[in-house]
Design brief:
Layout: H1 2-44, E1 58-62, H2 69-80, E2 105-108, E3 123-129, H3 132-148, H4 156-165, H5 181-201, H6 223-228, H7 230-235, H8 239-245, H9 255-265, H10 270-282, E4 286-289, H11 293-319, H12 336-341, H13 348-355, H14 368-394, H15 404-408, H16 412-421, H17 423-448, H18 450-462, H19 467-496
Helix pairs in contact: 1-9, 2-11, 2-14, 3-5, 8-10, 10-17, 11-17, 13-14, 14-18
The structure holds 2-acetamido-2-deoxy-beta-D-glucopyranose (5 copies).
């Protein structure tokens, strides 16, 4: 009898203890995570850069996917740096070799953790940020676009086998080799083939006509499904913040992965990450905005471009001999043409490499004005080529077709969901906008300095596109003058009375 009572008591006690342990372990897990994140934050809080406005020996272009970094690379950086100055295999973490002696430019989708492999004091970082909603849309569309190119193949097996065999020519890097596309494209490709096979197997092929290209499940993974998939959680949402913090799923520091898991599990810990990302952004040499494209580009030319040019001037006068100005065909930048080459004849490749291959820096004939002119030409040709490729690719998933108008069809619920999934990026983007305003002020102050007035004004107003601004300033001055004259008259008339 006594033993039965004891047993019952024991069971009750045990139940109580396990519940308590559960609660304690959840609490413990949170505390453990909090400590992990705090420790990381403390170790990531670098000292304030003494002179962040001066370009150091190495330029690290932290390329957040789908922010337009590709145009900066092709239309600015490749005109300023000879390919001999590019750090080899920038986009290819495994083979990356920062030890190359005169490597001065690194452009990569790798995250900030790459800094651990670079000489920190001698490195300047630049980046471009984009409105998170547009970035998610663009990531979705580009994943579909690249994956849809494979639909020329009869089935998934033949599509994957062929890509496995063929490597890009000229030592180029395929989009499929680089993060995050190496995950996003195969995932989307598999999905596209599955949907096509399902369509073909159906007896009645009455495809439901939907007006919303972002929700055509017959043809392509709908946007709402895309943003809720674990893969999107792994690599897309808050992607800019994680990249600047060095915490992407591609990070080269082992502790990053635990920090990322903790932040995803306990969103409140995200503030630690956001603070580090904001601080790093503030310490960068330049931050551009995809939306303010034209102004961002001009600012890039004036803030970064001028310094690169004077760096090479100094280098050339010191060494006496000019660097090789010949651009090799091989580049570390992934060219989306490499992915199309084996699928269809691409007539765009030649043009694109022509427009991006002249490097005048070495013999000192490049100026910021010429750089902006060349940029205009380069970017319009690049955009045309990209547009053609996109149209050709999206034909394969017709009637789905992504456009600005189609985006307006997307229900507001989904937009709100994207915002809430990207809360950190929304905050970081706000911060980037503030930095951009400061940069604008800083540049305007530089404009006032008489020393530099000539060169910068020359570059700012050298191109005909700046004429409207000159006109606006003239009109403004005229208005001010009129205002003062009227005011002066009033005052004199008051004096008379
Ligand atoms: C895939 O397509 C190739 C080429 O047409 C064909 O040889 C192969 O049998 C197909 N595989 C399957 C699983 O249908
Ligand atoms: C990164 O994310 C992809 C896609 O979800 C996943 O397949 C991969 O295993 C992840 N890598 C790490 C290191 O977590
Ligand atoms: C690609 O070009 C080759 C030769 O120039 C031609 O034989 C072939 O039909 C073309 N393929 C396509 C898909 O246009
Ligand atoms: C500098 O190089 C460019 C193209 O590489 C060439 O057109 C130009 O004539 C060169 N200028 C001088 C002064 O050598
Ligand atoms: C998709 O829309 C673009 C313009 O937004 C148009 O040029 C293109 O032809 C369309 N493609 C299809 C397959 O309808």
């Amino acid at each position: 009898m006594a033993s039965v009572q004891n047993f019952a008591l024991l069971v009750m006690l045990l139940a109580l203890v396990t519940t308590a342990i559960d609660a304690i372990s959840t609490e413990e897990d949170f505390v453990r995570c909090q400590n992990t994140v705090r420790k990381w934050a403390a170790s990531s809080n670098d000292e304030v850069k003494e002179d962040k406005h001066t370009l150091q020996d190495l330029l690290f272009f932290l390329h957040v996917p789908r922010t337009g970094g590709r145009t900066y690379f092709h239309c600015f950086l490749r005109k300023l740096y000879a390919s001999t100055h590019e750090c080899p295999r920038s986009y290819d973490k495994l083979r990356f070799d920062p030890s190359k002696p005169d490597c001065r430019l690194m452009v990569t989708h790798d995250d900030y953790s790459m800094m651990s492999k670079l000489p920190k004091e001698r490195t300047s970082v630049v980046t471009i940020l984009r409105n998170p909603i547009d970035r998610v849309f663009s990531t979705y569309e580009f994943s579909v676009e690249v994956a849809a190119r494979f639909l020329v193949h009869p089935n998934l097996t033949s599509a994957t086998q062929l890509t496995g065999r063929i490597r890009p020519k000229n030592n180029g890097v395929s989009t499929l080799d680089i993060w995050p596309w190496k995950y996003l494209v195969p995932w989307m490709r598999e999905d596209l083939f599955r949907r096509r096979d399902a369509r073909n197997q159906r007896f009645y092929k009455d495809v439901k006509e939907s007006y919303d290209s972002y929700n055509m499940e017959e043809t392509v993974m709908p946007l709402h499904e895309f943003i809720n998939n674990p893969v999107a959680h792994d690599i897309i949402h808050n992607g800019a913040t994680f990249q600047v913090a060095g915490l992407t799923n591609n990070s080269c520091l082992s502790e990053s992965h635990e920090v990322r898991h903790c932040v995803r599990k306990y969103p409140t810990l995200g503030t630690y990450v956001l603070d580090i990302a904001k601080k790093r952004l503030s310490d960068m040499l330049y931050v551009g905005l995809t939306e303010d494209h034209k102004e961002s580009a001009t600012m890039f030319a004036n803030v970064v471009g001028t310094q690169i040019l004077s760096q090479f001037e100094a280098l050339n006068s010191n060494s006496g001999k000019t660097a090789t100005s010949k651009t090799e065909l091989s580049s570390s930048f992934p060219d989306s043409e490499h992915d199309t080459n084996h699928l269809q004849n691409s007539t765009d490749d030649q043009k694109e490499s022509e427009t991006s291959s002249s490097v005048d820096t070495a013999n000192g004939t490049m100026t910021v004005g010429k750089l902006m002119d060349a940029y205009e030409v380069c970017i319009s040709s690049l955009r045309k080529a990209q547009g053609r490729r996109r149209t050709a690719s999206l034909k394969r998933i017709s009637p789905a077709n992504f456009s600005k108008d189609a985006r307006h069809q997307v229900p507001d619920v989904i937009i709100q969901e994207i915002i809430s999934l990207n809360r950190l990026d929304v905050e970081l983007y706000k911060h980037a906008k503030e930095i951009f305003t400061q940069q604008r002020k800083h540049l305007a102050e530089k404009l006032v300095e008489p020393e530099e007035q000539k060169t910068i004004l020359g570059s700012l107003y050298g191109t005909s596109t700046w004429r409207p601004f000159l006109l606006a300033i003239a009109v403004l001055l005229l208005l001010l003058l009129t205002f003062f004259i009227v005011k002066a008259r009033k005052q004199t008339s008051k004096l008379k009375v």
